[in-house]
Amino acid sequence: MITLFQFPAAFNVPNASPYCLKLETWLRLAGLEYQVKVVSDPRKAPKGKLPYVRIEGEAIGDSEIVIRTLGERYGVTLDAGLDARGKGWARAITRLCDEHLYYLMLYFRWFDEDSWRVLKPVFFGSLPFGVRDAVAWAMRRKVRATLRAQGLGVHGRDELLAFARDDLDALDGLLGQVPYYGGEHPCSADAAAYGILANLIEATLDTPLSHVARGYPRLVAYCERMRERVWSE
Length: 233
What we know:
61% of the residues lie in helices and 8% in strands. It is built from 9 helices and 4 strands.
């Protein structure tokens, strides 16, 4: 049995972490049986982050490494119906979502003051009153350092929104008139795309970026389609 360790659900989406939502969506699309263990502190996880899985006593971290490992172990792939070009597009879409649009979402969740006032009690409200503010401040500082190291943290708000529009334009254009990024059926890119887009479009946490994302009717319809197909229970 696969045990999936991840953050708790929040903001009316299956998981407020795009990476956690990506991995669980992939598990469901792959038809693999699993159980969920909710944790809030990633420090003891492999690589110090969530999600991760434990299988046959082995802990495996990082959503991409988990997907690759489980795919090889169980002989599962969501990309079997794609040709080489399609597989290349799936990889490019995944990278755009995981390594660029994710960090833009992070900025607007943590550093837009209106969004932060909503996020802070949800993420840190269960901590003892005496340490809550200190931990939140330390984590916010860590996120800022991460964004600066990644490169996006040196830019201003309007520049970041422009980057985000470019990413969303690309995702909208690549989806086109087909139901999924895999065509008639979801592929690996759909797990990554839904992980981030659901957190922008469907999450009840409003940010300047989420308002932009909700202005793409095809992406809104895509999220509805993915939720119905994968998360209808």
